[in-house]
Amino acid sequence: MIAEFEGKYDFLSNFYPSPIFYDGITYPTNEHFFQAMKTLDQEERKKIAAADTPGKAKRLGRHVQLRADWEQIKVDVMRTGLMLKFTDAELAQKLIDTGDEELIEGNWWHDNTWGSCYCHDCARKPGRNLLGMLLMELRKELVYGNSSNEVAHF
Predict the structure, then answer these.
(1) pTM of the predicted model as reported, rounded to 2 decimal places
(2) Angle 63-51-45 (CA atoms, 0-180°, nearest 5)?
(3) 98-133, pLDDT tens digit by residue?
(4) Strands 20-22 and 25-27: what pairing?
(5) What is the b/e burial string over 36-70, where b = at least 16 CB atoms within 10 angstroms of the residue's CB?
(6) What is the largest CA-CA distance in the chain?
């Protein structure tokens, strides 16, 4: 099991530097991309893409005009961002090299949607770990070639 996306496995994190070009904008990380897709406003997307750090992009994403369909599409947005991130051959190989390890985005900041928080209060009920699940799904597609490679438009 890979229980945290740090150190040797920091490339699995959405904060990892991995430029994503989408709809005419380059996003420095998947976090930038994900946060920008929360809005339909191209200027807000550009502002998020220009954020100095993924943390700043995340904070900016909390203040955008949230698109009406966000809750319905956010998992597909994350899937698309990961697919674009791992078009980088070196990153794709690193993901493949994780073998059949379970990937868990373990954290201490109470994210039980995309990961699983290990704090005392949260540890009693494991998180949904959607990021880990999507990474394992993508890894399988990379290994077995089952991906459609179609980029959704948001």
Answers:
(1) 0.92
(2) 55
(3) 999 999 999 988 999 999 999 988 878 889 999 999
(4) antiparallel
(5) bbbbeeeebbeebbebeebeebbebbeebeebeee
(6) 44
